[in-house]
Design brief:
- The strands form 3 sheets. The protein has a 5-stranded mixed β-barrel.
- By secondary structure, the chain is an alpha+beta fold.
- It is globular.
- Among the domains are: 120 residues, Butyryl-CoA Dehydrogenase, subunit A, domain 2; 253 residues, Up-down Bundle (Butyryl-CoA Dehydrogenase, subunit A, domain 3).
- The model has no long low-confidence stretch (mean pLDDT 94).
- 53% of the residues are buried.
- Helix content is 51%, strand content 14%.
Length: 546
């Protein structure tokens, strides 16, 4: 009798993560109304399957292993992965999450938005393997700074074949790319980089250099090539660094060790040294920062998308648990305080989804002046605010499961994995202060105040709290001349845009609850502090994963 197991919820498995995500589907309808979603539905079914959930668990339990030398003492600098890692990579590459918008056949409206939705959905399954996927997505347009490299590598970078073999790119069916920017003495201040680039002639790919130095965070060292920063004669420059050289030999990229990280366990992050490694210039000498910023913008979009996906999965696990778990004579989901918590989490998750997909839409319309302005303005805003909310969100969702959420076995360890993953997107590609500073730079380009007012205009008159915030923002934007309040401005721009989007994409109960709590102050300092009288039933029902 003591070994009978009861009142333990069934795991959330074998469900379609796309079809059950109403906020995401509504955001897609609003931002890309002509987008075909059949492929997203098929991907959603795979991502929620027991098979793929098992691969996600195994890839994180069996972490990457560095083999710096072979048994004879020769350097090989290879990273070994569990087979489940490769299955995850095969699915993400096969789904086009790395290169869909850059493929010739995908040159139509909504390619970035489609890819963003798929990226968000995949994050619910396993976020670590998306690091090389994100960097491949971001590196492809940056390669246009070297026409010969772009012509040779772009077809392989957009291929849907995952090929992990360590060979020269021309012998492979598909390739991935990583990057190496930061060094131990500089971190986010990449201008402090000391890696040296010495000219070494030229060839088919243009100006060739020899790189000597180190990188403190060298993401995904098993990729086929990398974009890195180094000091050339004319200053800090961007370089293309392949792992395998045209003659078939390994480039002099020496992997020193793999990082022992809080989360992101399935992905290999490393420290490396360049020992006269061969690289090719991308863009102009001395213009490395502008060249690499294009790549950073894309990966910052993915940070917002990734955190939104993690929020959605944490919420789904909490809802699944609370709808089955009994406490004090009834299901947790019927308890008033728990309903407040779940509704509040649902509200935060939907707002994050709305903002992240809206940002993706901006990249689909690069010739539209307003969309250009929104890409500049919302990239640091979305990355800052959504990622800042992630860790707090994950902790509250974990608390809904109690001890079952804290242990690695609970829900196949997914909730604990989400909690450990959440801080990464906030740190990677520029922490909060860097995003706030980027926002200030964005405000100095064009008429940011007018662009923001245009974005908020559809919701004018819908809620007094939003009207007050929207009326004050243009003046704050125009007068923002000091860094000290930049974080507060990023927060308020995010909240205002989220509210305006929810007015256009969500039921009135969702929009009203968001404005009452986030803008009008009928809210505390923790989740689960929504005011009485809000329609929590609509919020919870809309968010249910099944």
């Amino acid at each position: 009798m003591t070994h009978d197991v009861f009142n333990q919820p069934a795991p959330l498995v074998d469900y379609n993560v796309f079809e059950t995500n109403r906020p995401l589907r509504d955001a897609l309808t609003f931002n890309a109304p002509t987008l075909a979603t059949a492929a997203l539905s098929a991907l959603g079914a795979r991502l929620g399957s027991a098979e793929m959930l098992t691969h996600a668990r195994l890839a994180n339990v069996n972490t990457p292993v560095l083999h710096s030398h072979d048994r004879f003492g020769r350097r090989v600098d290879q990273v070994e992965f569990h087979p489940s890692y490769h299955e995850l990579m095969k699915l993400s590459v096969g789904s086009g999450l790395h290169g869909t918008p850059w493929a010739i056949e995908a040159n139509n409206g909504g390619a970035h938005t489609f890819r963003a939705a798929g990226f968000m959905l995949f994050t619910e399954l396993e976020p670590s393997t998306l690091c090389p996927i994100s960097m491949t997505y971001a590196a492809t347009p940056a390669l246009r700074g070297n026409a010969a490299l772009h012509a040779d590598w772009a077809p392989k970078l957009t291929s849907r074949d995952y090929d992990p073999a360590l060979r020269f790119f021309s012998e492979k069916t598909g390739v991935t790319m990583g990057m190496g920017m930061t060094e131990k003495q500089g971190g986010s201040d990449v201008r402090a980089n000391t890696t040296q680039a010495v000219p070494d002639g030229s060839d088919h790919w243009g100006q060739r250099y020899r790189l000597t130095g180190h990188k403190w965070f060298f993401s995904a060292p098993m990729c086929d090539a990398f974009l890195v920063l180094a000091q050339a004669p004319a200053g800090l420059s961007c370089f293309f660094l392949p792992r395998v050289l045209p003659d078939g030999t390994l480039n002099a990229i020496r992997i020193q060790r793999l990082k022992d990280k809080l989360g992101n366990k399935a992905n290999a992050s490393s420290e490396v040294e360049f020992d006269h490694a061969t690289a090719w210039l991308v863009g102009e000498e001395g213009r490395g920062i502008p060249q690499i910023l294009e790549m950073g913008t894309m990966t910052r979009l993915d940070c917002a998308l990734g955190t939104s996906g993690l929020m959605r999965q944490a919420l789904s696990l909490a809802l699944n648990h609370c709808s089955q778990r009994q406490a004090f004579g009834k299901a947790l989901i019927t308890q008033p305080l728990m309903r407040n918590v779940l509704a509040d989490l649902a509200l935060e998750s939907e707002a994050a989804t709305a903002l992240a997909i809206r940002l993706a839409r901006a990249f689909d319309h690069p010739a539209d002046p307003h969309e250009q302005a929104m890409a500049r303005l919302l990239t640091p805003v979305a990355k800052f605010w959504i990622c800042k909310r992630g860790s707090h969100f994950a902790q509250e969702a974990m608390e809904c499961l109690g001890g079952n959420g804290y242990v690695e076995e609970g829900g196949q360890g997914i909730m604990a994995r989400i909690y450990r993953e959440m801080p990464l997107n906030s740190i990677w590609e520029g922490a909060g202060n860097i995003m706030a500073l980027d926002l200030l730079r964005a405000l100095r380009k064009g008429d940011a105040a007018a662009a923001l007012a245009h974005e908020l205009a559809p919701a004018r008159g819908a809620h007094p709290a939003l009207d007050r915030l929207a009326a004050a923002l243009p003046t704050r934007v125009e007068e923002m001349s000091t860094e000290i309040e930049a974080r507060r401005l990023a927060q308020d721009v995010a909240l205002a845009v989220q509210a305006a989007l929810l007015f256009q994409t969500a039921p009135s109960a969702v929009f009203g609850a968001f404005c009452d709590s986030r803008l009008a102050g009928n809210w505390g300092q923790a989740f689960g502090t929504l005011g009485a009288g809000l329609d929590v039933d609509t919020l919870i029902q809309r968010a249910m994963p099944q």
